[in-house]
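Holo prediction — adenosine monophosphate.
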Amino acid sequence: MLETGDPRVVRTWSRAARTGGRRVGFVPTMGFLHEGHLRLVDVAHSHANAVAMSIFVNPLQFGPTEDFARYLRDIPRDRTMALERGVECLFVPEGKDIYRREAVVRVSPGSLAGHLCGPFRPGHFEGVLTVVAKLFHIVEPDVAVFGRKDAQQAALVRRMVADLDFPVEIVVVPTVREADGLALSSRNAGLSADERRSALALSRGLDAAHEAFRRGERDGTAIVNAVAGVVRKEPAANVEYIEAVDPETLGPVAAVSEATLVALAVRVGKTRLIDNVILGQGLAGDERLGERG
Ligand code: AMP
């Protein structure tokens, strides 16, 4: 496995792979890897012959009061996991490798940041799209793989690629969950045992939305209330938002359909968790780990 923090080395690797007739797949991450990230690598392998992963905690997407400095990092562990899963190029840049100067020109998410996490994290998606654009220019992948766990991010990246004509295919992978339903996240490591139990309110709430939809409920507010009814029973869970939105525009829908995305953000202690479900699929459409671990 090639490991480097130098963008030029990554681009040289990628161009050599493509000159050799291989398709390059790319999985961008912030590290502290778990099975969700590794599933993206598996999917990248099924769409490409050479897979690159980046590990970069992007300062541009963290607000001044957010957890940039506290974000968990463990490069030696990540390196072993990436290698075992067949990552061929591991790009681990430092801040100065990506932002040689202040990022004056940035990518604007426009109206897609007007809902869900956008209003609660001013500047976050501008930071995400700017770094993803830069990573795409460095890695020059044929295909890039993202998780539906971060549904708003995936929708924004798709839209950026379409609107700005990036020559890259975007693949979005269903959320990987623990056996009890908790969506895998690097942030779960910051939960105490009690907080982890409280965090199950997110997936239970989304399950309730799916159940209501299955029983014939089509009113957006009623679906949101079904989630809220479950989550608000959990005293340690502080709801930031619960919304039923169109999966492409991310705007709220009055009448829901199979394709409607129901998403929420909840604070449990100091940890901010997000999760979502596509109503027609339910959590059963997501992957579960056999055992907690
Ligand atoms: P992060 O390191 O949190 O920025 O995540 C990197 C990529 O992994 C993003 O595309 C995420 O959507 C994806 N991801 C994170 N958690 C999961 C999960 N539980 N299942 C599937 N993909 C995930």
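READOUT: Helices lie at 7-19, 35-47, 75-84, 95-98, 124-139, 151-163, 193-214, 220-231.
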